[in-house]
């Protein structure tokens, strides 16, 4: 008999071959109906998979939402693949994972790429499969047998995938009813009927290369969103609609902030209004880091490949680096412009090795520490064209980057102080956040003792800052640290509930050792400093993109590129409008004038589209009385106030939050 321990500590003895579904039924009919899967010794498994040994068992229900959603989305992907092959015979399947809000599946169509016009028919077929309540049955199958089956069925992509799996690995397939099957590790729900047919929607179609390599065949990828019930789907679709309205690329064009074009893939052309937001953020951050005792530095864009080899980045990160030859190009002969024996250099993808080189200049004493070097550092990373996305993923970006060189006894206090600084800054922008600790990855530098120490220091610092609580979403993430250090991550929640991983601090003992950084200790001996890598915005480009979407373009007054526009109704008020703009600018308010020969309703619509927060409308009467009709973005109607009162009202909020009390 097997001994199965339940979450309450009770133990049930059951015969080998008993399933978690059997145990749920023995406990009660309500649980039998609610249970959808099981965790066996922490591993998520099918509810109908037989138990094999003494185990810890936790039954999973829809209340365990994260697990339930993962199962449902995985099943929706399989149902999608079955539906497509039913409607379009000859289509080959590849693979289709669950995603953060749904699922996708990549197909090799027989005749033509799929289009969005195909989606309604595919959705209808998926609902038929769900209604048929087909059992989803796991089968362990020999590797060579499975490869032969895929080849016989003309599934060349699946055959290739199976052939690349290790010889000793257990291969499994899941059958949908008596016919269709797919290679999959699982787990799955017990049957297709466990899915809610009203809780999914296919959203779009795109191209995708097999295995993500542009040298391989082009496939058709069908995306969908999947949930546990119709209400969750409706809420998600509402969020998507709102996100579409907030898309930073759309608003960036409407507000004339920036643009991108193929002549500079992944690099941003900042327009005056967009760069003004950048400058406000940069000035704000400089004041913050100056107050916190950082010293600003500037380092080279290009460094010798040998430096990157020593740091470890050349081996770990080279595919994402722009590499250039260190020689004068040959411009006389046709053909290659450089020789085969050129030395190599690289555009920096990060600032940290250069900051170590600054630290190494001159002898440092234990009394000099901590040293906090800050840089608005421009970096380049060779991201694939298909991965680029507006401001959110670019090739050229500027980090609000800093590295703190400190002694072992200073680490906890330095990290605690950073937590307090990040908290203040995020709250100035109206964000709430959660904080996570990313722990050692499988492939890493350094000893286990070093990683134990570094992880505990970050835990202790967060506790000292009072942030290791449910209020701040404290969580530890196994395996998600950098190859050289564990890290704390700040995940911001925006106005429509999306999360963005932005800030980070990493406790690194590897890079100072690899690059031979040292200081003279109180004992007169050389010691390695600990290097804390930290950022709050992450990158200016991405942070501005997040802000555009968070505020839906309606920036707080201090960040708005244009804080007020004075617009005339009639030309008789032009002189008064000019005087008003001068007084606004003298008060530190970024103001513009609109005296075009256009109707006022046209001007109002145009400046509303441009998200100008304050429109001061003036006509003949306002010019005579020294007043304005104030229209505030997002509010109905207008207020009639004296110009001086409007200036007094705007002047305070037109300043950055940290300057308002000065």
Automatic annotation (TrEMBL):
Keywords: Aminoacyl-tRNA synthetase, ATP-binding, Cytoplasm, Ligase, Metal-binding, Nucleotide-binding, Protein biosynthesis, RNA-binding, tRNA-binding, Zinc
Family: Belongs to the class-II aminoacyl-tRNA synthetase family.
Aminoacyl-transfer RNA synthetases class-II family profile domain boundaries: 247-556
Name of the coding gene: thrS
Entries under CDD domains matching the protein: TGS_ThrRS, ThrRS_anticodon, ThrRS_core
Ranges where the TGS domain occurs: 1-61
Enzyme class at the top of the EC tree: ligase
Pfam hit, one: tRNA_SAD
Intracellular or extracellular location(s): Cytoplasm
Sequence positions that bind Zn(2+): 352, 403, 533
Family matches, as PROSITE patterns: AA_TRNA_LIGASE_II, TGS
Cofactor: Zn(2+)
SUPFAM superfamilies from the UniProt entry: Class II aaRS ABD-related, Class II aaRS and biotin synthetases, TGS-like, ThrRS/AlaRS common domain
EC number of this enzyme: 6.1.1.3
Keyword Repeat part of the UniProt annotation: no
Molecular function in Gene Ontology: threonine-tRNA ligase activity
Alphabetized PANTHER family for the sequence: THREONINE--TRNA LIGASE, CHLOROPLASTIC_MITOCHONDRIAL 2 (PTHR11451:SF44), THREONINE-TRNA LIGASE (PTHR11451)
Listed name of the protein: Threonine--tRNA ligase
Co-factor remark: Binds 1 zinc ion per subunit.
InterPro entries: aa-tRNA-synt_IIb, aa-tRNA-synth_II, aa-tRNA-synth_II/BPL/LPL, Anticodon-bd, Anticodon-bd_dom_sf, Beta-grasp_dom_sf, TGS, TGS-like
Reaction equations catalysed: tRNA(Thr) + L-threonine + ATP = L-threonyl-tRNA(Thr) + AMP + diphosphate + H(+)
Subunit structure: Homodimer.
